[in-house]
Design brief:
This protein has six helices and four strands; from the N terminus they run H-H-H-H-H-H-E-E-E-E. The chain is mainly alpha-helical and 173 residues long. Helix 1 runs antiparallel to helix 2.
């Protein structure tokens, strides 16, 4: 409930700030800010909706537990108890996956987040491969993509784009 309220307040605040644009600011900057605001609003909206959808079954079952079982001391048969335990464990599992789902929500809905994540993963891989000395074990294409090198790499006075690899030995064509 609080998340919904604060999410709506955040979207209202973003829209009110968007209306307060300075006349001296260039049009490209305004467009970029609006794009970032739109991405933030979409991510926040998805976050609130998914949190509510995932939380409602768990809390409904908890309320049922409090009313039917605790207050009225309802006794389940063995099949009812099995169904109740299955539903309880399923809804609890869904409820506790909520913090993990935020990563996937941001990755799917936010291009800026996605690009930053790719940059961080690429930097981490470059660092680990550099420390472990595994660069020579990677295929040339992977080295070019990972290390951001040009397609035509000059190695030992042989242009790699015009070479062929035979038995792990690079030979000119």
């Amino acid at each position: 409930m609080l998340m919904s309220i604060f999410g709506i307040l955040t979207i209202v605040n973003v829209r009110s700030i968007r209306g307060q644009t300075d006349v001296n600011v260039n049009s490209a900057r305004i467009q970029r800010l609006r794009s970032h605001d739109r991405q933030l609003s979409i991510m926040l909206l998805f976050q609130v909706i998914i949190t509510i959808v995932i939380s409602i079954p768990y809390f409904a079952l908890a309320i049922y537990n409090a009313i039917a079982i605790v207050m009225f001391q309802y006794n389940f048969s063995s099949s009812e108890m099995a169904i109740y335990n299955f539903a309880y464990n399923l809804f609890r599992l869904l409820y506790f996956t909520n913090p993990v789902l935020t990563f996937y929500i941001y990755t799917m809905t936010g291009p800026k987040f996605r690009n930053e994540m790719k940059r961080c993963v690429r930097y981490g891989l470059k660092t680990i491969i550099g420390i472990l000395g595994l660069r020579r074990c990677l295929p040339l294409r992977a080295q070019q993509i990972l290390f951001g090198e040009n397609q035509n790499i000059q190695t030992n006075n042989v242009l790699l784009s015009r070479t062929k690899k035979r038995d792990n030995i690079i030979v000119p064509i």
